[in-house]
Design a protein that fits this description.
Shape: elongated
Subcellular location: Bacterial flagellum basal body
Number of domains: 1
Organism: Candidatus Aquicultor secundus
Structural class: alpha+beta
Family: Belongs to the flagella basal body rod proteins family.
Pfam family, one: Flg_bbr_C
Strand content: 15-25%
Order of helices and strands: HEHEEEH
Low-confidence stretches: none
Helix content: 40-55%
Mean pLDDT: 89
Strand order of the largest sheet: 1-2
Keywords: Bacterial flagellum, Cell projection, Cilium, Flagellum
Number of strands: 4
Number of helices: 3
């Protein structure tokens, strides 16, 4: 494994964590959106991550004498949360049903904030790996 593969692997993590953070930001921004082009309230979204360059878990384990590490991470997709919307009684709202209830997005701000911290920490960890690889390269040039 070369220095450049370390940088490439960490860069896939940076890209994936940035998309995760963008998805969280979209969820928070739409926490009160009651109308979407598809109809109904906004649905919370989740990023689905998968290992890059591996066909399955058995290949991920590899053989006991394997000298190759993983190939990074890729975004397998963005899935919409299928849980039911929150129903809030507000008969004056333009989107209220006949009983006065409004279907609100299925977003919990506390959950989104926890996910945001996790995405931030994962991003910072990948930046640290890139910094360590850079430091190792500089030290090897000093030899």
């Amino acid at each position: 494994m070369s220095l450049f593969s370390t940088l490439r692997i960490s860069s896939t993590g940076l890209t994936a964590n940035r998309l995760w953070l963008d998805t969280i930001a979209s969820n928070i921004a739409n926490a009160n959106t009651t109308r979407t082009p598809e109809g109904g309230p906004y649905r919370r979204q989740d990023v689905i991550l998968a290992p890059q360059g591996r066909a399955g878990f058995s290949q991920f384990l590899g053989s006991a004498n394997s000298t190759t590490a993983g190939q990074g991470v890729t975004v397998a997709g963005i899935a919409k949360d299928t849980s039911a919307p929150r129903m809030i009684y507000n008969p004056d709202h333009p989107d209220a049903d006949a009983n006065g209830y409004v279907a609100m997005p299925n977003i919990n701000i506390v959950t989104e904030m926890v996910n945001m911290i996790a995405a931030q920490r994962a991003y910072e960890a990948n930046v640290t790996v890139i910094g360590a690889a850079k430091s190792m390269a500089v030290k090897s040039l000093e030899i």
